Structure formats: C-alpha cells, structure tokens
Structure prediction request, 231 residues.
Amino acid sequence: AQSVTQPDIHITVSEGASLELRCNYSYGATPYLFWYVQSPGQGLQLLLKYFSGDTLVQGIKGFEAEFKRSQSSFNLRKPSVHWSDAAEYFCAVGARAGNNRKLIWGLGTSLAVNP
Amino acid sequence: GAGVSQSPRYKVAKRGQDVALRCDPISGHVSLFWYQQALGQGPEFLTYFQNEAQLDKSGLPSDRFFAERPEGSVSTLKIQRTQQEDSAVYLCASSPTGGARTDTQYFGPGTRLTVL
Prediction:
C-alpha cells in the first residue's frame, strides 16, 4: 500500500540549531515528492519538491531536502532554525504518471523552536 | 485572484444539517482537489476535478459527500446530514495543469467544520 511515514511527531530545537525532519515513503515506483509547511490558521505552503534531476533540492526559507532512492527517503533539512519556523511540516508523495493525481500525506511533524 | 480562497473559514453545524463549502481556485488553474484534515492528522484526499470533470472521487467517505465544479472554476463540497465524525478542516487546492502528471498543488486556508 502507498504510504508516507514521518517518524517524529514532535521536535523541539533551539533557535540557530540545525534541523532534520525525516520522511520515508512506500510506493510502487519513485514518486514525486513534496514538503509543505502549515502554520496555525494558515493553508499549506509548498517548501520544495522533487520531480527529477539533482537529488538535493533547494526550497524557500532556507530549506533543502535530499532524495535517497535506496532508502526511500526525502528528509528535510535547515542549517539554522529561526523562531518563525515553528509550524507543522508535512511530507507528501504523488504519482509520476497515470490518472492518479492525488497526494498521499504523512501525519506531520510539529516543530517547536526555543529562543 | 492571488491565491486559493475558501469560504466560510469556519462553520458550525448541528448534527443532521446540510453544509456547503466553497472553493475559488487560482484563476486559470485546470485541476482542483479537495482534502479532509482531521485534528492531528495529515490531509486525506477526497476528490479531484480536471476542469468541470470529476475524474476521481475515490476518497469521498460516503454518499453524503458530494462535490461539483460546474463551470470548471469555483467548486462546492456539500455534506448532507452531517455527523460528528465529519468535523475536520476541509482543504481545497488547485494546480495549473491537467493531464497525466502530478503537479504542484496550491492550497487555500481551509474551512474548519465543527459538527455538534
């Protein structure tokens, strides 16, 4: 079955510290991969996506993610976290081809940032 | 418009009432999606439109849920005889392309439905 696993439900980091949020997927073939961020009362905002090419992708707000096919992972990283990064982060996958256009989502990781 | 808009932002319904949730996608976007997000969960797919055609409704949880996009832009998600388990945030997303390829989806702020 297709699924996305975000192993960490909640993470707390200090401002200025580095961050890595984990995402693993189970899919029939290599999917398209996305990271979204959701702040309270806000919609989901795209941070970055991987379709093809360089497996290290850069996104907005200083985030990057690395696709590792052998590990079925797409972990999100940021070298120095800011207090404004506190939010819920979701990893999602979608089919590369066919009429199945839906995204399959993880349960999310809630990030808290200590001053 | 600049982004996807949804109305109302909050809706409280008594059990058994019918509700209608509206989504205005980004102008010109071909594809439109509805997702349901329960508290503490990730979004769950409900249905997908390409223009006015509903190509996938596999995620609709019951026949009480109905969605339409009659002119290929604005969409309405209707829930009949609401139940407490329908309480969730309903998210609408649009993407610029149709066809057989997943594309970036742009999300609205959601409608928070509470069924008492």
User: Anything to note?
Assistant: The two ends of chain A are 41 Å apart (CA to CA). The first strand of chain A starts at residue 3 and ends at 5.
